[in-house]
Amino acid sequence: MESERELLLVEENPRKGGLRTMPFIIVNGSFERVASFGLQANLIIYLMTYYNMTAATGTIILGLWGALSNGLALFGAITADFYLGRYRAVAYGSISTLVGMIILWLTAMIPQLKSSPCSQIQHVCNGVTALQLVVLFSSFVFMSIGAGFVEPCSIIFGADQLENKKNPENERILESYFNWYYASSGISIILAVTVIVYIQDNYGWKVGFGVPAILMFLSVLMFQIGSPLYIKVKPKTTENLVIGLFQAAVAAFRKRNTRRPLSDCDGFYRWPLESDVLTPSKDFRCLNRACIIEDPQRDLNPDGSASNPWNLCSVEQVESLKALIKALPMWSTCFMIFVDINVFSFSLLQTKTMDRHIFPHFEVPAASFSVFMIAALTIWIAFYDRVLVPLLSKYTGQPRGLSPITRMGIGLISSGMSIALSAITESIRRQRAIEEGHEDDPNALVNMSAMWFVPQYALLGVAEATHAVGQVEFFYALFPKSMSSIASSMYTVGTAVSSLIGSILVSGVDWLSSTGGKTSWLSSNINRGHIDYFFWLLSFLSFINFLYFLVVCRFYESLNDGSSRLSHVAEDKECDYRLLHES
Asked: Which residues cross the membrane (predicted)?
């Protein structure tokens, strides 16, 4: 009923929504990405220079920042769906991001808000005050809150403006919108890691942080200018899916001593009554207690709904909880690939000491090398979709060429190979630096081309493309339709957990390798440290993770063709279900 009212609202307001809103929404998202990614690409250098952080400490802080931003995306999506609405979520998130960028820009403009760079001659460093760190971290928090609201809501808010189920061209219009939105996102990221990074390297941090702040201001302004034209879908008043999962777990625990019925489905609670899921599956049967009706008079309201949702849950809620539990083992295999991507900030320190000239008078900024990863990711997705899928589908019988699980495995292998190549390249770079007498000068240029790092960036791009797309498709096949939003959120939450794991791993390696007065593997002087050892450790962990992935795959054999395991819905159609409110 709610969706029907929203559709009527759209039809009664023909001046709202439509293609006229797209420039405002796409410009808002594009400028936000240019500003955000432009700041992140080079930030490790800023932290090491003006806050006297070591390479390890800076990487840990950036990892925690990434974990917070990605973790808040799930919170932002839930808040937008059930409390704020997507319009206010994007508006508040954009403003929060702008506040964070202005604070970060002020740290570059006001000398008292940052420490002075260390003296290269006397090796003297001024300490960083608590106030300076509070100001810095507050900028990160504001930007994380903003990203948590904007990232999951912006693209769906745009779809709200175009969706019209009575239009026969509805699907084509939405597909075109999604393509343009993702294309603009890719272009934005490329501009961020090239143009913004170039400005920071050549015009300093005052201009380098000021330009993203100005872009973010324009992003907020454009979004607000389009406000009178937007369709503003109200928050849902229906039950929160995430709360429903908790209710199913609590209800099953409370009824842990209840006997499970062995026969018909009469004793199971189903809501809404039109649901296709008639009986719970046989997997995790201990959870089936949550949907058992013990006393209809006590457990049900006159309309058939549960009187206490924390004591009686629907079959749908129980099956959703089971689907989530089934997904967790495979989801945990994705952490390592994102750890590999997140700790690649050390590669920035490596390429900064190497010859980055493509042409005699053009030098690629060190932080811009990630553009090779983005380019490889984009090219691989297009190549796989247009060339490999038609060829592979003839031999595998799969409409998408390779199954989601197979593509995830290819991504894990590619990621491990990329890190192994990085270890080999760093061993060669470090050896040359020592031979050239640069052991005590981490800023000295080594007579070695930075193009050595292009293959590992490209491999990492292919790894992310194959694994990420395969993972999302896998979750969509495993989860019921009601959990589509959770399926897309699993990827974001996985990156958050990976950022946290990466920060813990960097902290542990830095501490263990520096015990006894030894030089840390992750020393800021990379010519004395051993980043290659750290990369070999990541390669070994990636190999162990791949073995773990192979073990986990044995539990998903029926999903290896991309089909759903939730077949009990169709099998149990013959169950003679009795409408509870009529009994």
From this structure: 43-68, 89-110, 130-159, 180-199, 211-231, 366-384, 405-424, 491-513, 533-556
Q: Which two tokens stand for residue 119?
A: 């003296």
What single DSSP character describes residue 18?
S
488 contacts 156 by C-beta, under 8 angstroms: no
Q: Are the C-beta atoms of residues 461 and 53 closer than 8 Å to each other?
A: no
Give the dihedral of Cα atoms 477, 233, 146, 487; nearest 10 deg.
Answer: -10
Rounded distance between C-alpha atoms, residue 186 and residue 558, angstroms = 35
Residue type at 84 in one-letter notation: L
Q: Digits of tens for pLDDT over the chain (583 positions)?
A: 444 444 444 444 556 777 788 888 888 888 888 888 888 888 988 998 889 888 889 889 998 998 898 888 888 887 887 788 888 889 999 999 999 999 999 999 998 888 876 655 445 566 788 899 999 999 999 999 998 888 888 878 887 887 776 766 666 777 677 767 777 787 888 888 889 999 998 899 999 999 999 999 999 999 999 888 888 877 765 566 778 888 888 888 888 887 655 444 556 665 555 455 557 777 787 888 887 877 777 877 777 777 788 888 888 888 888 888 888 898 999 899 988 887 767 888 888 889 888 887 788 888 888 888 888 888 888 888 788 888 888 887 777 778 888 889 999 999 999 999 999 999 999 999 999 988 888 888 899 998 998 999 999 989 988 888 788 788 877 777 667 667 667 788 888 899 899 999 999 999 999 888 888 998 888 898 899 999 999 999 999 999 999 999 888 765 555 444 444 443 443 333 333 333 3
> β-pairing, 446-449 with 354-355?
parallel
Residue 17 sits at φ, ψ, to 5 deg, of: 70, -165
Say if pTM beats, i.e. exceeds, 0.70: yes
Q: How many residues does the chain have?
A: 583
**DSSP type of residue 517:** G
Residue with tokens 């190497």: 354
Can you spell out the DSSP letters for 528-551?
A: TS-HHHHHHHHHHHHHHHHHHHHH
- Give the span between the Cα atoms of 521 and 523, in whole angstroms: 6
SS (H, E, C) 289-311: HHHECCCHHHHECCCCCECCCCC
Tokens of 281: 């599956």
